[in-house]
Amino acid sequence: MLPEAYEDRDSGPTTGTAALPSVGGMQTIVRPAVAVTDLTKVYGTGDTAVRALDGVSVTFAAGGFTAIMGPSGSGKSTLMHCAAGLDTVTSGTVQLFDGRGEATDLTGLGDTALTKLRRTRIGFVFQQFNLLPTLTAAQNITLPLELAGARPDPEWYATVVDVLGLRDRLGHRPNQLSGGQQQRVACARALLARPDVVFADEPTGNLDSKTGQEVLDFLRRSVAELGQTVVMVTHDPTAAAYADRVVLLADGRLVDEIARPTADSVLDRLKRLGA
Ligand SMILES: Nc1ncnc2c1ncn2[C@@H]1O[C@H](COP(=O)(O)OP(=O)(O)OP(=O)(O)O)[C@@H](O)[C@H]1O
Ligand SMILES: [Mg+2]
Predict the structure, then answer these.
(1) What string of pLDDT tens digits covers the 275 residues of the chain?
(2) Is the CB of 75 inside a 6 Å radius of any atom of ligand 1?
(3) DSSP 8-state assignment for residue 21
């Protein structure tokens, strides 16, 4: 089965240019990669309705590494899925900016346009790796671009493969790779299209701490050295400390943010939230 992010769906596009929103109260001019505005997501209807997101506005800066944290059920995965165009929103907008600052409102796109956009402009790393078992590492890495009918840039492919230390594993299938190697393949797949943003949901959740650190080091390097934009959901304060900024959710609302987080400062805020 294809990873959900790369599945085909159907219908038509809307794109527009929007004024760049200011970034989370900071005075410095930072180019946004993603701007989420007044996002609400309600699952179900009537008595069983769950308001997973309740008016969330947040901007993820281009070339930044942001961690999303908060108690279980606070809406972290929902925010990520809505921001990545993997789930529909109940109200609000999600703007994805390209390198020239042109915005596309994902909530206005039809399924075909959204699928295409996800394959080339958004990278995904999931807790469960989501690699195709019958394909080699190399084939998994290039799959989204191939599905989009695009050819990977050979130099960039070589850079990504070497930075992730996958050169001698490219012919292996996922079941011939360790968990950490599988997650590095997933990272390579996410980066190959040079997407405007990489979303990672608990990317170290299935890894031991040493392997998890390698993946986090890589995500950090992809931001610092390759100019990538990364947004990562995590429960782990040590993982969050790899980010430039942590945003905290509680009950579907953005309640706090920490610039230049350390494991201690994150733990302290989480404790205050009762997480
Ligand atoms: N498909 C769904 N149908 C109904 N309710 C849902 C669905 N997905 C999520 N929810 C509810 O929305 C709320 C937010 O869920 P979400 O998965 O975003 O939380 P989370 O912060 O990622 O939690 P965790 O840390 O446990 O992964 C929860 O109350 C959850 O039960
Ligand atoms: Mg979650």
Answers:
(1) 444 454 444 333 333 333 444 444 444 557 999 999 999 999 999 999 999 999 999 999 999 999 999 999 999 999 999 999 999 999 999 999 998 999 999 999 999 999 999 989 999 999 889 999 999 999 999 999 999 999 999 999 998 898 888 999 999 999 999 999 999 999 999 999 999 999 999 999 988 888 889 889 989 989 998 889 999 999 999 999 999 999 999 999 999 999 999 999 999 999 988 76
(2) yes
(3) P
Q: Where in the chain are the domains?
A: 64-84+108-272
State the DSSP code for 74: S
Cβ–ligand 1 distance for 74 under 6 Å, the answer yes
Tell me which architecture the domain covering 64-84+108-272 has in CATH: 3-Layer(aba) Sandwich (3.40)
Task: Choose the residue to mutate in 77, 235, 248, 255 for probing ligand 1, maximizing ligand atoms within 8 Å of C-beta.
Answer: 77
Nearest one of 237, 244, 236 to 219, comparing CA atoms: 244
What is the model's pTM?
Answer: 0.87
Alpha-carbon dihedral sign for residues 258, 259, 261, 264? negative
- Among candidates 262, 202, 265, which has minimal Cα distance to 231? 202
